[in-house]
Amino acid sequence: MDPSLYLDRDTWVHRLDPRTKMFLLVGMFALPFVFLNPLYELAVLALVLFFGYLAQSLTNLRRIWFILLTILIVTTILWSIVGSGRTPLFLFVEREALLYGFSNALRIVITVIAGMFFLSTTRNEEVGIGLVRLGIPYRFAFAVSTALRLVPTVVATGLTIGQAQRSRGLDLESGNIIQRIRKHLPLLVPVFVTTVRSTNVFSMALESKGFGARPERTYFLRTAMSGRDALVIMGFGALLAGCIALRLAGYGGLEGFSS
Amino acid sequence: MKPEVSIEGLGYRYRGQQKPALDGIDLEVAEGEFLVVMGPSGAGKSTLCVSLNGLIPHFFRGRMEGEVRVGGRSTREGRVGEFAQEVGLVFQDFEAQLFSTNVALEVAFGPENFAVERDEMVRRVESVLGQVRLEGFENRTPATLSGGQKQRLAIASVLAIEPRILCLDEPTTDLDPIGKLGIFEIAEDLKDRDDVTLIVVEHETEETIDADRIIVLREGKIVADRPAREVLRDVGLLQDSSVMPLQVTRFFHEMGLWQGQLPLTPEDGLTEFKQRRWRVSPESHRKLVEADAKREEGYGEPVIEVEGLTHRYPNGVVALEGVDLTVRRGEFLAVLGQNGSGKTTLVKHFNGLLKPTEGTVLAGGEETTKQGLRRLGQTVGYVFQNPDHQIFSDTVFDEVAFGPKIREMEEAEIEERVREALAAVGMEGRGDEDPFGLTKGERQRVAVASVLAVRPEVLILDEPTTGLDYAEQRSMMDLVRNLNEAGSTIIVVTHTMWVVAEYAHRAVVVREGKIALQDTVRNVFTEEEALRDAALRPPHIVSFGNALGYPVLSVEEMLRVTEEEG
What we know:
Number of strands of chain A: 2
Strand order of the largest sheet of chain A: 1-2
Oligomer: heterodimer
Strand content of chain B: 15-25%
Number of strands of chain B: 22
Helix content of chain A: 55-70%
Number of helices of chain B: 24
Structural class of chain A: mainly alpha
Distance between the termini of chain B: 53 Å
Radius of gyration of chain B: 25 Å
């Protein structure tokens, strides 16, 4: 299985300059936090999903739907219990607290989905170049894109090691919390050792391919801001500004909630 | 002519090590030469590689003596990045050195670092991918390539820097026979170019016949430095250096030919055999075949029964389709096939790691899906390829005791089983040692012992000889044979064909998710064409026997059936 999220599709979203995609990412992170009303959050979610549809990246949702659902349920329940409002619903749960919880859950879900669409449409290398074009030193930009690469690699190693230890009889599903954490030791030690080892080879390979050999470097991927990029940035900027204005005008809030 | 690489009195000791990894190495490599480096594990072969581009002394911590000059310039004087343009280094672990999101970007990374213009970069990517036969793969993600393709990509990514010296550290270790051949075809092409010097660390002698020169390292010193064919004919030297001699060469060596006369390939061997008017005794050969049949009669009842097994991965890829297979008690089965053919997927059904999409798998007479992984583990033990994927304890004892402990056995019982398991792998009395301080071969043994301690009836070993030298491979497989003779049913998944020939009884060839061949090893290895379709190739001595019309599996068998005229 390919553990990376990137989907090699030829859509206009994929062709955007990485800086534009980063702008969109930040914007989509900000949007859900402009509003508090779940209805408005649902609208934002719909917008983000529509964007994912345009980027032909909805299939990746299948890989994380379970996590998203868990976040949605757990967050909603937690806030319903912890928060308080004016209108009793049942037992000690108030209507406003439930709605607030649902909104917060949607906020997290939207950010996760937006982040996933970003990774589905942007190569690690593009993240690197995007950062460099924004004035960040190449070494740092490379570190960021390497970290992005490392996550799926470690996950894949972890899956193999999990199989090896389960074959020996390790059962991670039973026992109380402390027992379960202790039981992860047979997983964590080999994951750590293997990752350190391969990171060592990785850094030798980097040096051997002339990483940092010259003060300047060139890029194989071509990136350039086009008219379309400008259009997307302006359009999305306007949308964001409009949403903020809407909220300041008193729409999209949630009356009667207190934590 | 000025040497491309010149090494004088090179010694190196890694920090924290008592013994030097390299000691008094003097070596010159001429421009355009094809040099092969051989020797046992820990002889210093990889250390020699990393000293060529300045990783030693600049990257590693330790003490260096002597001088390494590349193109006349001492590696002490410049940074690794500077030498990288002259010396291309490809590491053994190809997975860890591929990091880009597609093949073209992977290849372009080196040129990018040297600020090569984009047009030139595009040209290089195209030309280099052609050289390693990966045209049309530009947009593929490296993770989706086969082992051989990944290794070729690793080579391409270094070739794109256009180094004058290319050093490959055990480039064929994880590959199926045809994948190996692919790497050596690249080496062949490079050899024909006078401007590229090739240095390859390799223990597969069959692939090194066309090298110009071979050096043999032992304990950090050069013990032989001669033309390749001369070294390959020195059977004694190779055996003493934990390198497997060419089988045909060893056969004629044992038959008493003097060194200079020894043929190297099956073809040359055939000519020699016929010229000397030797012949194969049909009676002796019949005895071999009869012994196979007799052994087969001795097997017990079925212990693993696979019926109509189909496995579809969540992404829809069909990994196995309609597989039927029965393994009986006491068998020694080899599962063969190309990287990605489905052989590992198949055996992972035997211990319940994977569940059939269709069909059934019975282990010990009961469906695997009805037994938990832990209970199944008592019937079927599984030793994974990389021992580092399972070792986590502070002591060898604790590591081996993991299985029995997790099954809540009595203290005395646990100790008894650990002692028994360590004895079985030849590591008795070493329970107090730190597993991380052991050699790869020893860690592999600890991994086997930790599975044995549960006393499973069936033992699955996934590539048990990868990364070991010849002597370690032999001792590992002798250990497995002993377990088989003591009653264990053995299933090995492997690329190493001589291991299959000499140790396994029966072979199953998996190709594109289906069983292509399944028979005694002797019969499977006569089907050279079908094997080639599955990216496999029998060992030299088997091809040699096949050409004579009498399939044999080892040099020893060939010696037994050969009769000299008169």
